[in-house]
Design brief:
Layout: H1 3-23, H2 32-40, H3 45-51, H4 57-66, H5 69-74, H6 78-86, H7 95-106, H8 124-130, H9 133-142, H10 147-153
Helix pairs in contact: 3-4, 6-7
Length: about 170
C-alpha cells in the first residue's frame, strides 16, 4: 500500500478514536481503569454498568470495541474459569461442570492460550517421580531432562533453564 494511504488510514483511525473519546462516558469516567480491568476479567457487563452507574451495558461494549479490550479479554480465559472453580462449593453447579472447568483451566498456559491435550506432557510431579537421583541432580543443576523424556516428547528443557529450549 502506498505511504499516503497508510497515513490516511492512521489519521482516520486517530480521528475515529478522538471522536469516540469525546463522546464516551467510560473514557471520561473517573474509574475508567477499574471498569476496563473488570471487563477484561470477564465480569458481567450488566453488573459493571450498574456498579459504575453507566447508562447501560452498550456503552461498555462500544468502549471495549473502540479501545480493543476484546482481544485482551479473550486471552484472559483463566479469570472466569477461576471464579467458577472458587465457587464450586457454594454455587449451584454440577460436579461434572466443576471437573470440566478444572480440566479446562489446567489446559490454559501462562499466555492465556488453550493448549491441546496432545501438547501436554503431564504433571511436573509425575516427571520427578520417574527420575532417578542422578537425573534429578542434573535437572536441578542445569535443567537437563533425562534422555528418555526428550526422546518421548521431543522437549529439550524448561524455558529459561539455560538448556536447549523447545517452545
Amino acid at each position: 500500500m502506498p505511504r499516503s494511504r497508510n497515513l490516511t488510514a492512521i489519521s482516520s483511525q486517530k480521528l475515529n478514536f478522538n471522536r469516540h473519546k469525546s463522546h464516551c462516558s467510560i473514557c471520561a469516567h473517573p474509574q475508567r481503569e477499574e471498569i476496563e480491568r473488570e471487563f477484561i476479567s470477564w465480569k458481567s457487563p450488566e453488573k459493571i454498568a450498574i456498579e459504575y452507574k453507566l447508562r447501560d451495558r452498550t456503552a461498555l461494549y462500544r468502549h471495549a470495541h473502540a479501545v480493543y479490550l476484546f482481544s485482551k479479554r479473550n486471552r484472559n480465559l483463566r479469570a472466569p474459569l477461576g471464579r467458577i472453580i472458587e465457587r464450586a462449593d457454594d454455587a449451584p453447579v454440577t460436579a461434572g461442570a466443576i471437573i470440566q472447568a478444572i480440566a479446562l483451566y489446567a489446559r490454559i498456559n501462562a499466555r492465556g492460550e488453550l493448549v491441546a491435550p496432545d501438547e501436554q506432557v503431564g504433571r511436573q510431579e509425575d516427571l520427578f517421580e520417574k527420575m532417578n537421583p542422578d537425573e534429578l541432580e542434573a535437572y536441578a543443576k542445569n535443567g537437563t531432562l533425562p534422555s528418555w523424556f526428550t526422546q518421548l516428547t521431543g522437549a529439550k528443557g524448561p524455558q529459561g533453564s539455560g538448556g536447549d529450549e523447545n517452545e
